[in-house]
From TrEMBL:
InterPro entries, sorted: Bact_Kbp (IPR052196), LysM (IPR018392), LysM_dom_sf (IPR036779)
Organism: Billgrantia bachuensis
Ranges for domain LysM: 32-80
This protein's name: LysM peptidoglycan-binding domain-containing protein
Keywords: Signal
Signal peptide extent: 1-17
Cytoplasm is among the record's keywords: no
Domain of life from the UniProt record: Bacteria
Entries under Pfam families matching the protein: LysM
Matching CDD domains: LysM
Length: 350
């Protein structure tokens, strides 16, 4: 659960597993105490103390001072202390818990601190999905006509769709977006589908179903795709961590066509489940070094690349993934390289 992940953050003991010292594990400007405020996130809080916010799940150990630490709330205090020569993080419960014998009353879950800015992810997942095999589109249900011979339809209108549709079931209506391809081989990695709206299927005859459009962000057109609504919960498996194997990929695209990329923007990556990526994996972004001319030999040289940010995978598909830019020291671009985070070098959040 999200709450379990949050508990791990503040019950982290940096001395375990990695053997981090005061110098290795903490930021030089880490505070002694920090009071959690509304709007904080797991990443933001851990980044105030740790040089690498994504490292905390790898080194955590339950702090015996905290009993059943399921959630972190505004008003709780995170404090730094020494345990056997190593830095540890403790938690003092603030306004998030009121002890009333014989029960403990907690602030509702909706007011607890989130791991990352979830609204950005939820909004994106509501409007985007990927088909791994574009050839399968021919087998999916699709809009064949609007009611009264309308070319476009909207909320409250009726449409006709052809395909296997179950009466009474709600479906998503999608339009084909960008075709994601491998830059080197040209291989198709996935086909983006953009949400247009939702509709409920009614009675059907000879494979054609009458549907009522329940909501629409754009006009519904003939040939739009009709798919069962996708379950998109990001709860139990969402724990930020480095991949346990080498990853070498690139930023494939930015949904919406933006060229320069900043913090909290969604990016498409050219690696997916086939390459071992999972929800929560954190990748370093490396920008290619500039080309310069050797002043003595006249040779064209490529300068070493520069680490420029961190991306967290939140929705992996078979051959590609969607990720959220968590940190950026400069504007990122399509084509920037992705690899495992470097433990020796921190990235300053901008």
């Amino acid at each position: 659960m999200w709450g379990t992940g949050l508990a791990l953050l503040l019950t982290a003991t940096l001395a375990q597993a990695q053997g981090l010292s005061w110098e290795q594990g903490l930021r030089s400007d880490a505070p002694d105490r920090y009071t959690v405020v509304r709007g904080d996130t797991l990443w933001h809080i851990s980044g105030r103390f740790l040089r690498h916010p994504w490292q905390w799940p790898e080194v955590w150990q339950v702090n015996p001072q905290i009993r059943n630490p399921h959630l972190i709330y505004p008003g709780d205090v995170v404090y730094l202390y020494d345990c056997n020569g190593r830095p540890c993080l403790g938690l003092e419960r603030g306004q998030g818990e009121v002890r009333l014998s014989p029960e403990v009353r907690r602030i509702p879950v909706r007011e607890a601190i989130e791991p990352i800015p979830l609204d950005t992810v939820r909004h994106f997942l509501r409007d985007h999905r990927v088909v791994d095999d574009p050839e399968s589109l021919d087998e999916l249900a699709y809009v064949v006509a609007g009611n009264d011979r309308r070319i476009i339809s909207g909320a409250g209108d009726r449409i006709y769709a052809r395909g296997e549709l179950e009466s009474g079931q709600r479906y998503g209506i999608y339009r084909v977006g960008e075709r994601y391809s491998d830059a080197a081989t040209g291989e198709t990695l996935g086909l983006e589908l953009i949400s247009i709206g939702r509709a409920r299927a009614g009675h059907s005859e000879d494979g054609i179903a009458l549907m009522e459009v329940l909501s629409a962000s754009q006009e519904v057109r003939n040939d739009d795709i009709v798919l069962p609504l996708e379950e998109r919960e990001l709860i139990s498996e969402f724990v930020p961590r480095a991949p346990d194997h080498d990853v070498d990929g690139t930023i494939l695209a930015v949904p919406g066509g933006v060229r320069f990329i900043g913090r909290l923007q969604v990016v498409a990556l050219d690696r997916g489940r086939h390459d071992g990526l999972e929800t929560g994996h954190v990748l370093q972004v490396e920008q290619q070094g500039e080309r310069v001319v050797d002043p003595r030999t006249g040779e064209s040289l490529r300068l070493p690349g520069t680490d420029a940010g961190l991306v967290m995978v939140f929705r992996p598909y078979e051959r590609m993934s969607y990720g959220l830019v968590m940190q950026a020291t400069r504007s990122l671009e399509v084509g920037d390289r992705l690899h495992n985070p470097r433990r020796g070098v921190g990235v300053v959040q901008r």
